[in-house]
Amino acid sequence: MNSNGYYRSFSMALAMSLLVGSLFAGARPLSAASPPYTPHFAALKSDEVHVRKGPGRKYDILWTYRSLGLPLEVTAKHEHWRRVRDSTGAEGWVYFRLLSALRMGLISPWKKQKITISLFKKANTASATVVRLEPGVKVLIKSCRGAWCFVSVDAFKGWIEQAKLWGVYPGEIFE
């Protein structure tokens, strides 16, 4: 390679390193205070899922979920394993392929008394009631507008107050 080619290659390499360096210049490094993983909700893809003490098959099974579509909050990941939390606060590790991105929710699972929660035709409490649901009923969450979410269960579709639904974050918006 002649000296002209050498300088051209060196100049290109220097330009690329400056460009790449500038892209990361504003990036904040990860620290113990900022977790590298953003929690989100997922649903069980199977009607039988083992929850383990740690991220791998070598860890003991703590319990087994037997509820297809059960919503879980994914709070961490390690390789192919996800740490999950259910509506009761119980936590453990699940293999990632047993989870779906489908948004499912539970109607007021924290309520223990015999009450019903209204699913409304429109996103307001003055609207007609489509159906009344008991706490713990699983619903498919189709969208959320912050204070209200549009859900379906069996043949029924309607709006529910977001605060009465487990499986979305307060004020969360999505279509």
Q: Low-confidence stretches at least 5 residues in length (pLDDT < 50)?
A: 3-35
Determine and state the CATH class of the largest domain.
Answer: Mainly Beta
Largest sheet: 6 strands, antiparallel
The helix count comes to: 1
Give the percentage of residues in beta strands: 35-45%
Order of helices and strands: HEEEEEEEEEEEEEEE
As for the CATH topology of the largest domain, it is SH3 type barrels
Molecular structure report:
The protein has 175 residues and is mainly beta. The protein folds into 2 domains: 63 residues, Roll (SH3 type barrels); 70 residues, SH3 Domains (SH3 type barrels). Helix content is 13%, strand content 41%. It has 1 helix and 15 strands, in the order αβββββββββββββββ. Strands 8, 11, 12, 13, 14 and 15 form a 6-stranded antiparallel sheet that branches. A 5-stranded antiparallel sheet has the order 6-5-4-1-7, with no helix packed on it. A two-stranded antiparallel sheet has the order 2-3. The longest helix has 23 residues. The protein is elongated, with a radius of gyration of 24 Å. The termini are far apart. The relative contact order is 0.13.
